[in-house]
Amino acid sequence: MALDIKICGLKTDEAMAAALAGGASHVGFIFFAKSPRYVEPAAAGRLREAAIGKARAVAVTVDADDAFLDEIVAKMRPDMLQLHGTETPERVAEVKARYGLPVMKVFSVSEVADLERLKPFIGVADRFMFDAKPPKGSQLPGGNGVAFDWRILAGLDAGLDYMLSGGLNAANIGDALISANPPAIDISSGVESGPGVKDPALIEQFFRAVRAVRDDRAA
After folding, report:
1. Has this prediction a pTM greater than 0.90?
2. Element (H or E) spanning 55, and its range?
3. Disulfide: which of 26, 104, 138, 189 matches 134 by Cβ 3.0-4.6 Å?
4. Minimum mean pLDDT among 32-36, 54-58, 129-133: which range?
5. Which residues contact 50 (CB under 8 A, 6 or more apart)?
6. d(C-alpha 84, C-alpha 176), whole Å
7. pLDDT class for 218, splitting at 50, 70, 90?
8. Between 152 and 210, whose confidence is greater?
9. From CA 1, how far away is CA 85, in angstroms rounded?
């Protein structure tokens, strides 16, 4: 099965080019003002032009109201919405109905019990993302560069569509793929030279690491 790979928090043409050259299936844009990866909707709309026909553009929001979502959808024209806040199943359904776009709901996890929270969302969200819980004091729900024990995902129902996120980088992606065998992965801070600064060389290195793992497993 093909592995979906999302490079998230893109802000520059160079980073976008590196993501697409590596074979990203998804490219993400952050619409959360406290994040160093924040980008204006109009700027994201210009950047995402390069991904048309190559990768799906994802708008990442945190408890955004309808007015902000309206602006994002109008100016960026995303292929998918990612909800990274405290949205309820009802809110996910509202967003899907309002925009006619698939929705990915994010859950912060650190232990098996945390996975219970996704049950009311099954059949509502189109895809899930599992990210590490933010460190104490962090104002960011994601992009903190911390990982969780990927083995806790082993008990998920086969066929559950999700992305694995949180602290991934070229050095540990092999362990992550072997431990969890996820259908998709998401990386942001793991390909940055500084907060919010995507490094094309690190993006290329990450894709090489993923290919190496997949080649080993196919051998």
Report:
1. yes
2. none
3. 138
4. 129-133
5. 13, 16, 17, 20
6. 21
7. confident
8. 210
9. 30
Confidence (pLDDT) at 146? 67
Matching residue, tokens 């990612």: 82
Locate 90 and state its tokens. Answer: 């009802």
24, exposed or middle or buried, with CB in 10 Å at 0-12, 13-18, 19+?
buried
pLDDT per residue over 36-65, tens digit each? 999 999 999 999 999 999 999 999 999 999
Q: How far apart are CA 47 and CA 19, in angstroms?
A: 12
DSSP-derived letter for residue 48 is G
Write the single-letter amino acid at 149: D
Does residue 7 sit in helix, strand or coil? Answer: strand
User: Which is it for strands 197-198 and 103-109: parallel, antiparallel or unpaired?
Assistant: unpaired
Q: CA dihedral defined by 68, 39, 93, 185, rounded to 10 degrees?
A: -170
